[in-house]
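For reproducibility, we list the full input for the zinc ion complex.
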Amino acid sequence: MTTEVIITGTGSPIPDGNRAGPGVLVRSGDVTMQFDVGRATVPRLAAVGMWNLQLTAVFVTHHHSDHLTGLADLVLSHWVMARGDDFTPMQVVVPKGPAVDYVSEMTNPWRHDIEVRAEHSARSRPVEMELIAFDPPTSPTEVWRCGDVVVSAGPVRHEPVLPAVGYRVSTPDGDVVISGDTRVCDEMAELAAGADVLVYEAMLFDVIRQGPPFRYFILDYHADTNLIGAQAAELGVPTLVLTHLIPAPANNLAPALGSAVTEQHYVDQIRANGYTGDLLVAKDLDKVVLEAGSAPRIERQG
Ligand SMILES: [Zn+2]
Ligand SMILES: [Zn+2]
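The corresponding predicted structure, in tokenized form, follows.
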């Protein structure tokens, strides 16, 4: 058995023709889990063979639109793609707070479309999800399990957005931690201690500081790449994946954010702070493969 960690979207709120909104797919045997569902997640899932969109569960980190705008598309497309009444609602796991309101209401504006489609295609089952809301934890806490896969949520620091969590996925092949959006903080260290793969949101603070002051507010609640390097080195995590890249390498808006950047900018800051493990500055659909007994393996998509 293997566990694959596929970065379905490496983007952020900044539009980018090559990067979908934030999302990570973890496939461990038959268990398929999507963490956040940013814009254009559905075509990325189709690109890795999940055209029927039958995920075991979807997990939400926090209530920011860039992490959620693909979720209604995913739930509706899953229902449309199902054959007749052969439809199994997906579990959607959400920290209690505004994201629960959003998820509960997000298909309502489509109710007329849903009604007409259901009648026209003779489906008796409506669009359904199994919403699993959990109390925002104060330390890493199990929130979901399926077979031998366990998912824990831990608090992260993304104020003023509350609550915000990261997730730790424990599989027979190893442990994967997904930061969601956060500053580099002690809470992340606690969630990621001993993990095999750490997927971290990353921002180049020096580049943002070269840009216009009206954007400096984003420095309040994102992860400084220098600090990520130092924390990953201290944790000794074998494989580090950077995503939610601001600015994104080769993004044609990068000059507006201060300067054009490359993947090497990220690599240099991580290495300068002592991290010597495997490092991936991700593009969409890059992946890490875990197998019990061997080191995680990075596979790039060209
Ligand atoms: Zn975000
Ligand atoms: Zn956010």
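The chain has one domain: 3-297. Residues 3-297 form a domain with the Metallo-beta-lactamase; Chain A fold (CATH 3.60.15.10). Both points were considered when choosing residues for closer inspection.
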